[in-house]
Structure to design on (366 residues):
């Protein structure tokens, strides 16, 4: 597909209406190299991302849908901003300052990705901007006290910036008037061959993590930080996603593939550090992930299959995409040894993740 928008442009158009009649818009950001990201005011959902291959051909490398109705019934969180809490909280309960809070159980027996009416279902306010080098949008949302069972009024701001260097920069900010758990992420699914090109088991993956958090039968971390050495979870050196995904490994059986948090080797902080890279030898596209977060969730599209019909009526097959969700660790409110996810009044949550797109020519590893 050829991208017809002018370089460094922003467009906004109607995408559909919610059941209550509120309009959902689609905002398209295009940089000088024609890298293009389209997202919705609903949930900040990234609908498409067009990136060039080594021959200059543009393909849409993220999974998604064509209609608002499909997004409202989506159970895979395609492309969505996730809040208040990305990933799982055991039994949908946590205790804070001596009070127990009950959340929605939308991934029995656990709470997942902020609940069925989490921030992926919110209609965000969106203001766009352009500069000499960048184009982007500021998304804001107020989550009221009691939203999906969480305490405190939370003001959230997320900034999508598409840079001249072909980076999608995501800045997360949040404040609260009561202590509350916060763990924000973006749930884009990537297939660097194109959203409709089948399996990603031939993609080459690197993760800068010497440990991961093994899980129980309900995908809740056990609390252990396990060394990846001599396991199918060792991606410290580039390796095909499918190399060991079919091994007789207890953790792979529990997740039906990879659905695990990796403990990044860098210390979380102010400046983003390298977390992971994904490369497709066939087309030459490369995705690098940098983050200030302490963890990254690798999800190998285990729940996709014949029942998932995406854009242009394409069937999204099992292992048809990878999600690389930068985050704090799952179930942190129950794990005192994990980095804290409790945001206090007077504090400001700040987090940055960068998805950088590039290409590589043919080499002896292709």
């Amino acid at each position: 597909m050829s991208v017809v928008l002018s370089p460094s442009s922003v467009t906004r158009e109607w995408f559909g209406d919610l059941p209550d009649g509120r309009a959902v818009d689609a905002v398209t950001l295009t940089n000088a190299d024609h890298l293009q990201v389209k997202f919705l005011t609903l949930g900040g959902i990234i609908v498409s991302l067009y990136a060039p291959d080594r021959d200059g051909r543009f393909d849409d490398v993220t999974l998604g849908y064509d209609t608002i109705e499909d997004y409202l019934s989506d159970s895979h969180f395609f492309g969505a901003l996730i809040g208040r809490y990305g990933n799982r909280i055991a039994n949908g309960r946590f205790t804070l300052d001596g009070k127990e809070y009950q959340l929605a159980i939308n991934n029995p027996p656990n709470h997942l990705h902020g609940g069925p009416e989490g921030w992926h279902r919110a209609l965000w306010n969106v203001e766009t901007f352009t500069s000499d080098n960048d184009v982007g949008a500021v998304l804001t949302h107020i989550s009221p006290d009691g939203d999906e069972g969480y305490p405190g009024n939370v003001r959230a701001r997320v900034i999508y910036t598409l840079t001249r260097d072909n980076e999608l920069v995501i800045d997360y900010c949040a404040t609260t008037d009561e202590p509350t758990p916060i763990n924000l992420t973006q749930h884009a699914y990537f297939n660097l061959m194109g959203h409709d090109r089948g399996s990603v088991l031939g993609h080459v993956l690197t993760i800068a993590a010497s440990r991961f958090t093994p899980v129980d039968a309900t995908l809740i971390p056990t609390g252990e930080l396990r060394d990846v050495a001599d396991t199918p979870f060792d991606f410290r050196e580039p390796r095909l996603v499918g190399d060991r995904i079919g091994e007789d490994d207890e953790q792979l059986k529990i997740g039906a593939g990879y659905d695990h948090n990796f403990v990044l080797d860098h210390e979380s902080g102010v400046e983003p550090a390298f977390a992971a890279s994904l490369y497709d030898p066939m087309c030459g596209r490369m995705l690098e992930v940098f983050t200030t977060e302490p963890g990254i969730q690798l999800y190998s599209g285990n729940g996709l299959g014949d029942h998932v019909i995406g854009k242009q009526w394409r069937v999204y097959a099992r292992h048809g995409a990878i999600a690389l969700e930068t985050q704090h660790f799952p179930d942190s409110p129950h794990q005192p040894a994990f980095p804290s996810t409790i945001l206090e009044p007077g504090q400001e949550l700040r987090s940055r993740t960068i998805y950088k797109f590039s290409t590589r020519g043919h080499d002896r590893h292709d």
About this structure: The chain has a mean pLDDT of 95. The helical segments are 68-72, 250-255. The chain is about 5% helix and 40% strand.
